[in-house]
Inverse folding.
């Protein structure tokens, strides 16, 4: 079994859409990621009517990784709803998740994100967020840009 199959199976265990209350819905988007040391962490989407309480599956998996291991670097990630990513933008992290991963660790720019499960096509996070706004801080020891 290859790593993408393993990640898919782990994420699929989390998929069971559930109405938590009349205001909250969970487990309808799932994610599994492989950390820098090879551990696998999962997460699921949690949405509410108020919006600010929402957590995407990708960020939940990353938070599980950090809380349980202290790691911040992701090697590979798969996210999906009722079926694995099938191309044409399926399985792509939202903008907030893309930014979160970039802020979590500069190395995450190299993480592979599965685009098509059948063909094993991937993209890197850097391909999704070229010329990311925060790279300046990484390159300059956390310093804010100053006007010249």
């Amino acid at each position: 079994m290859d790593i993408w199959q393993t990640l898919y199976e782990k994420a699929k265990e989390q998929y069971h859409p559930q109405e938590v209350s009349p205001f909250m819905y969970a487990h309808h988007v799932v994610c599994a990621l492989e950390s820098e040391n090879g551990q696998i962490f999962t997460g699921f989407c949690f949405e509410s009517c108020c919006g600010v309480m929402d957590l995407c599956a990708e960020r939940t998996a990353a938070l599980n990784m950090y809380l349980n291991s202290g790691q911040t670097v992701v090697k590979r990630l798969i996210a999906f709803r009722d079926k694995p990513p099938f191309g044409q933008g399926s399985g792509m992290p939202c903008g907030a998740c893309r930014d979160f991963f970039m802020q979590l660790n500069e190395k995450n720019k190299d993480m592979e994100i599965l685009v098509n499960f059948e063909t094993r096509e991937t993209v890197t996070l850097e391909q999704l967020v070229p010329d990311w706004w925060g790279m300046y801080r990484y390159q300059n020891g956390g310093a804010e840009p100053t006007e010249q």
User: Anything to note?
Assistant: The chain has a mean pLDDT of 94. Strands lie at 18-21, 24-35, 40-48, 74-80, 112-116, 121-124.
